[in-house]
Amino acid sequence: MGRPSIREKIVEAALDRFHLLGYNACGVQEIVESAGALKGSFYNHFKSKEAMAVEAIERYGQSVGLDILMDETRDPVQRLRDHVDFLVTRLVHHDFERGCLIGSLGNELSHSAPLVREAVERALDQWTELVEKALREAQRDGRLASGLDPARTARFLVNAWQGAVLRMKVVKNREPLDDFLEVTFRSILR
Amino acid sequence: MGRPSIREKIVEAALDRFHLLGYNACGVQEIVESAGALKGSFYNHFKSKEAMAVEAIERYGQSVGLDILMDETRDPVQRLRDHVDFLVTRLVHHDFERGCLIGSLGNELSHSAPLVREAVERALDQWTELVEKALREAQRDGRLASGLDPARTARFLVNAWQGAVLRMKVVKNREPLDDFLEVTFRSILR
Questions:
Q1: Where is the HTH tetR-type domain positioned along the sequence (chains A, B) (predicted)?
Q2: How far off is chain A from B168, nearest CA to CA, in Å?
Q3: Separation CA A117–CA B185 (nearest Å)
């Protein structure tokens, strides 16, 4: 692998700044400078700030441990648990100052930035689909609470996780994440 | 009741703009003008934009149907259900373009605006406490899934609701709200 291109460095810097501060709290110039790129070179690389945010979301989506969910050789409940544990470890590592970039930008921009809204929708759909597959397997093994539909429950869990991460950012401790784990793995999955 | 004061009008306008666009996407001047106040009069009324946001959150908190949860003469599961139905009706009324101001500002500002973070924490705690009371009653009636702690489950549900509202803003339909209702009232409460 060669050195990252200027373009890649800008996407990385955007991901980092948006993740910590949100989208509207930081400007294109700040991002370009923190990437070590030349002032004014931004539009050589991206059509718009929004287009850059879409790439940041896509890059971030590759880092949320979906590979753990994809490993269908493993027990479905255990791989859901391991996936969440992976995410918890990262949130703790960042001292609860960074949540989920996908959820944060979805929250901030769904009304005003249609390209970002679409990228967030795609990312959440991909995530949900993998959770749904694991829930279908769990259901076959009799480990999904009776009466629950795997597709609906998958959406519910991905959303509940986003809400847990949101509350974590507010309270700045892991209690909301533990609440998610306890309630999910007691009442929805066994 | 007299006419709303300029100060009240500014808080209302801030609530309206922050609810639709978020905090960093709209400026103090835009809010003051949309309240019909004189340009430049803002700092006669508020110490800062952040202090105004705290008041907007407190005002918004009075409109989320907590009175429905407070009515302890009524069946606890039914009043939880009615409370959520009340919120769903309002989200539908706004064509899914506005989520929950408390969650939105918590998500956007927990890192950068400590007074807002505290106001969001207070609002979510108050909400959670009322849900917890209803869950304790439901548990006495044998209607809370076995093995669940009411305090933890109350936090989980308030957070899961925030996540459902976030996804609703992204997909712009009521599916995430229905997912919340179905899974909650099948697996957690009966």
A1: 4-64
A2: 9
A3: 29
